[in-house]
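Before relying on records like the one below, remember that each one covers exactly one chain. Contacts with other chains, cofactors or solvent are not represented anywhere in the record.
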Amino acid sequence: MCFVCFVGKKKFNDQPFPYRTEIELEISTLTNLGVGLGRVPRPAARGQMTEDGGRDEAGLPRPSSAERSDGGWVVMVPFTLPGEKVRARVYRNHKNYSEADLLGVLTPSPHRIDPKCPLFGRCGGCQYQHLTYAEQLKWKRQQVEELLKYMAGVEFPVAPVIGSPREFGYRSKITPHFQAGRAGRHDEPPAIGSSGGFALPPIGFLKQGSRFEIVDVPQCPIATPEINALLPEVRAKTQARIAAGEYKRDATLLLRHAQEGVITDYDAVIHEVVAVAGLGEAGLPGSATPATKPLRLHFLARDFFQNNPFILPAFTGYVRAQATDSGAKFLVDAYCGSGLFALSCAPVFERVAGVELSATSVKFATENATANGIVNATFRAADAAQIFAGLEFPPADTAVVIDPPRRGCDEAFLQQLFTFGPRAVVYVSCDPATQMRDLKGFLTAGYRLTAVQPFDLFPQTRHLECVITLQR
């Protein structure tokens, strides 16, 4: 049974295109998933003649004049670029669009370049290695503008994306996966070698377009050179353990580049140093001689931390500037983690409070404040239903920084935030789509949008961070 044709034993939907139909189309834009989008005339239902009559060379009915004038049927083709004419093969039909594999680029974009990684197009980790970096930034900005317009109903100028100092070799954490249950299967050739006829499963990342199949990744160009230097050793040791039967379940490895070097132990305590730019000699913003001060943090290797350390000085400096420009005297970091934003902002506020659901993270944040000599920042673990309970800061003089998970803020948190009613909110998000969804709630609650600034923490991929500033 073909897995692509049948998912959960559901028959392939052959409307409007039969499975593996080959088509030619021009790509008009990129989606926020990094996929090329084009339109083609929608074929009439199979077995039916159209009002124009006749059939094409494949024996399918030609589309009617009405179908040709409605804008066409949307087809998504990954690894294509706007302006390109391509040939593609349909593998899935949805209610409003089809998905197709790229067979060939007939007319390439002037912005197309050769990808650096030989696995690009198979590995699902990167979407843009075939696009110049300047154009990546251009399209990411446009995608934020479109999300603002169509999801939040707002037309607002989006600042040019602030690019990463490194286009490759920037990622300080990777988590390769493998499926231990695949070991020992002999119905397909081994992907990464074998031991005594014992097939070893691939160790890497999900294949493009798949939720289950893994592509073997011996090197990752977007990871730091230090991670890539250790990766062969980690892979060899893992393969030996797989061959010895030590893994009973699928597993995920960790390689995290920190001050100690590359760490593979999830429970290790690691250290990071972030250069906090834009503070004067006296620790005050706007002085004649801006200085850079190192912020030293420690936390568990498994904990969340931004994975592009090279852009963090500009990133944290912008968040701090947006919070202080509001005129607030106090700051609340509502998803504080180990204290990155709270502690980088502390020197320019009278008092700072960090709030976090994880007691372990609060412990590290408190220790980090002490280690950096910061005495005006406190941290507490709060129940999700009482994030702002007991907070003594006057709302009219308080700014709030929020950096929620990819899914965005839940309704209960937003209602607590709106009830507290801070002077300003600086909303940091790794998913602008959920951020724009939440923006509608802020606008309804009486906040106005004052700035939208994307940061490219993830070159070569569709992902980006976006910071929006709201004032009451």
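Residues 22-112 form a domain with the OB fold (Dihydrolipoamide Acetyltransferase, E2P) fold (CATH 2.40.50.140).
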